[in-house]
Amino acid sequence: MERYIVDDQQDNPPKKRGRPKKDPNAPKAIYNLSRAERARRAAQKQVRDAKKRAAKATKAAEDKRRYARKLQESTSKVEKALQGKHTTVIDEGDLQNVSSTVSDLVEEYEVVFKPNDGPQEDFLSSSERDVLYGGAAGGGKSFALLADPLRFCHNPNHRGLLLRRTLDELTELIDKSRQLYTKAFPGAKFRESKSTWHFPSGATIWFTYLDRDKDVTRFQGQAFNWIGVDEITQYPTPYVWDYLRSRLRATDPELQQHLYMRCTANPGGVGGWWVKKMYIENIEPNEPFPAFDIDTQRPFVWPDTHEKAGQPLFYRKFVPARLTDNPYLLADGQYEAMLRSLPEVERKRLLEGDWDVAEGAAFPEFSRSRHVVEPFELPTNWPRIRAADYGYASPSCVLWGAIDWDNNIWVYRELYVKHLTAEQLADKILEVEELDPLPHYTVLDSSCWNKTGFGPSIAETMMRSGVRWTPSDRNRLQGKMEIHRRLADDPYSNEPRLRVFSSCQNIIKQLAGIPLSKSNSEDVDTKAEDHAYDALRYMVMTRMSGYASIHQQLGSIKNHVYQAQDEVFGY
Q: Which of 85, 167, 170, 313 falls 20 to 30 Å from 233 in CA-CA distance?
């Protein structure tokens, strides 16, 4: 598609795109497309806006339905508790949903277990089908997982399943359950032979362990309305968790409305990768989201033949926890001191609940709290940079950055796409940049200038489409060191020289998790996903940080002085 410079003040015929001569008296020229193309894009924008409004309305309606169901559940629970016929589990949310008079009456009953304010309470009051309670050590995860299935133990049809990876870990969990279950339900008994709790109503909770993934098939043919796994990151793949979902069912009308899967975890572990992908990446904590396939990223929806066609099958939620959320363990400071004494990676995982840090990470200094910021409107007089790493079968990544007056870089946008030709990627870039100031620096992987045939190179093709580029500096080690310098704090401002908008998820993910090369500890692993990292490396090499630039200039001056001395004194 031919592109033109159109003069918005004069009725001149369009001419091919080119850099106009500077004339202070000439009318301002702007980039534009053909009228038909502008109309098409305007229509597409209207369709996108309409879809966003429809999605927002659908979510609001679903929130109202969820609140109505929660109110009905809370009223039913409180009513049963006041009848005094059996023990009933009531959380703070239930009390808040009923009148103050009823709440005062309920408070007169003996409280066997009261969750800590914050994440533990949020976890126990969650109505989503699949919930992860995870993060730092000491957040009260195990006790919360033990308390959660008690909400149904007044129902004789309640069947719960609680798993650990090994027998030793299961024994510790059983010991903790003895402290809680007999107080909550007098008459409850634990039968060692079957490792099962039996409650006066007839409800049961089976405690067992599952060492090998393939052993999960021993649950074939069984049904549970509540399934929990403590420390789920100990399972290397999601196979166990996915299979257990097929065992989640009930015939009792009350329990059919409350089929729950609950799991806890600390960051890391052999299964940390899939747990992070299922619950953490690109997900807002404490916000319900439609469950999706972690391989295809497609949401699970009802089929077209169902009355709920197109709606999510069920929702998930991630509830993060930290040591500071557990006042009992935090009080004496001993446990916190022990966590602070751990090596950096384990300290970030267990004390800070950081899911991004990885063993052998190339940039352990990267921190979401320091380097990731919420988007804001950038000053128009900050120079802009565009940097890109091109791929077709593998992703192409384009990053946009702005340079403030202290030479700090703010990465404010990313484009991460696959299967786009050079022309298509150029069109996409022009569409994204339509309202942007013109970039001052544009860098593309220098290998894009290589020709593999008789036609133009990738770089030439994109430039013919109106997207200008200059070749990048491909010095891998120098580029990595420059990223290290920018992630470090400036000695004068005590702030990092590189910040990333939270909307740029791929560069955040790669900075947090890209590993070091096993053959060259000074470089990253090039077999890992590194397209956003490469684009960032090209970007930072266009603007060396102040310290690095001064250091290089001083080194250059010293070399000239030494050369002059050699010439004068004949060394």
A: 313
